[in-house]
């Protein structure tokens, strides 16, 4: 990929390799670390694959110019950029137009510190403008005109203040094994950054689970990204997550897809393990009969820290474990324990974060 900022911008750390070389470099590292040879490999588009982006704003007062900026590769200061080769086409288009319009308007320009972009495969864009000043109704009026001019949705943030100018979500469509799913993505809450790889991840898991008569348990479910497509393989689903915002959108996403066999409950993984071992009762579970579930599969997609000890012990109660991980180091640590009682059936790498050293892994485990 050609990018004017490769080697300067701190975002793409594997800038000196082409797409296949950087993928091969990461796959080899995974093979050596995990001693697995039969790996399913899923590629990313070579450019414009990130549907989320965060940029600092650089004000050049002498030239009266605004530009986007990223941390340098050496993490010493900022590098100014005009475009970004890894973010989606719709974000790139919005980036250019946004700066032109903001530059003309002192209320929108003054003390603008950073901009976050969230886009969807349907071409919608949600922009969050982050300020180092108090924003108010005067700012909102100007922002509303900006949103109309750009044809995007807009949010403003400053310390302790959030102003939703138009709406705080965009609508996303994912194609998974020939079926289309609809998701509402909010500015708060986790979203997978690379929808092409995300679709392949969900498809990979779904392909490896046949139709079951049993139930499915998911921890760290976010807004139902995996839950909704995978629910079709099971009788009933219990899916949990710590973020209130994500659970709210997961419930909304169920309605969008006409899915009726999932209960989404806001519980941390630690709380869920206590509830399912009948060590603690929760009001949030009052309408659920835990004893009625017969879970055959447990699915985990934890944050970079991996599974805590309590959750790691708990997942071993089930016949099948599906583990999606964005951090090979914590996955390795957790697999060292799981491998004592579970066999690895399939191992996959998903190049969700191309041109960086990061890679997502998926492991399907079955009790020995
Ligand atoms: C890597 S994301 C995966 C989300 C979802 N599977 C997806 O594909 O969009 C991890 C999720 O775990 C949630 N989380 C973080 N710590 C948690 C905890 N202790 N218990 C439950 N959920 C947690 C986060 O809010 C986040 O939504």
Characteristic terms for this protein:
OB fold (Dihydrolipoamide Acetyltransferase, E2P); 10 helices; 30% strand; globular; binds S-adenosylmethionine
Q: By helix and strand content, what is the structural category?
A: alpha/beta
Number of helices: 10
Biggest pleated-sheet summary: 8 strands, mixed
- pLDDT average, as an integer? 96
CATH topology heading of the largest domain: Rossmann fold
Ends apart, CA distance between termini: 44 Å
Measured on Cα atoms, how large is the radius of gyration? 22 Å
Q: Helix content range of the residues, please?
A: 25-40%
Query: Segments where pLDDT lies below 50 for 5+ residues?
Result: none
Q: What ions, cofactors and ligands are bound? A: S-adenosylmethionine
Task: Supply the CATH superfamily name of the largest domain.
Answer: Vaccinia Virus protein VP39
The tally of structural domains comes to 2
Name the quaternary structure: single chain
Strand order of the largest sheet: 1-16-17-15-14-11-12-13
Shape: globular
CATH architecture descriptor of the largest domain: 3-Layer(aba) Sandwich
In total, the number of strands is: 17
| SSE order, one letter for each helix or strand | HEEEEHHEEHEEEEHEHEHEHEHEHEE
Task: Provide the CATH top-level class of the largest domain.
Answer: Alpha Beta
Percentage of residues in DSSP E strands: 25-35%
């Amino acid at each position: 990929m050609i990018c004017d900022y490769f080697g300067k911008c701190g975002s793409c750390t594997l800038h000196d390799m082409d797409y296949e070389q950087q993928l091969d470099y990461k796959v080899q590292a995974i093979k050596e670390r995990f001693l697995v040879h039969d790996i399913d490999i899923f590629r990313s588009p070579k450019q414009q694959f990130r549907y989320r982006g965060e940029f600092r704003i650089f004000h050049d007062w002498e030239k009266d110019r605004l530009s986007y900026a990223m941390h340098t590769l050496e993490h010493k200061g900022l590098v100014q950029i005009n475009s970004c080769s890894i973010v989606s086409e719709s974000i790139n288009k919005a980036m250019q137009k946004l700066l032109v319009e903001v530059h003309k308007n002192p209320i929108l320009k003054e003390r603008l510190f950073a901009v976050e972009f969230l886009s969807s495969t349907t071409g919608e864009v949600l922009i969050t403008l982050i300020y180092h000043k108090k924003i108010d109704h005067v700012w909102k009026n100007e922002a509303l005109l900006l949103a109309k001019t750009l044809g995007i949705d807009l949010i403003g943030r400053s310390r302790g203040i959030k102003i939703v100018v138009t709406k705080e979500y965009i609508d996303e469509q994912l194609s998974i094994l020939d079926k289309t799913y609809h998701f509402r993505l909010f500015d708060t809450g986790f979203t997978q950054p690379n929808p092409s790889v995300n679709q392949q991840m969900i498809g990979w898991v779904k392909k490896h689970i046949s139709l079951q008569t049993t139930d499915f348990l998911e921890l760290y479910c976010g807004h139902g990204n995996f839950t909704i497509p995978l629910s079709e393989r099971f009788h009933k689903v219990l899916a949990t997550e710590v973020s209130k915002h994500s659970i709210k959108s997961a419930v909304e996403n169920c309605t969008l897809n006409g899915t009726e066999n999932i209960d989404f409950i806001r519980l941390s993984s630690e709380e869920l393990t206590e509830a399912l071992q009948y060590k603690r009762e929760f009001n949030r579970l009052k309408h659920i009969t835990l004893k009625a579930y017969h879970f055959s599969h447990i699915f985990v997609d934890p944050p970079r820290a991996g599974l805590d000890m309590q959750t790691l012990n708990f997942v071993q109660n089930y016949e099948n474990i599906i583990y999606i991980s964005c951090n090979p180091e914590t996955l390795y640590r957790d697999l060292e324990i799981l491998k004592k009682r579970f066999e690895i059936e399939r191992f996959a790498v998903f190049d969700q974060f191309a041109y960086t050293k990061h890679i997502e892994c998926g492991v399907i485990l079955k009790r020995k």
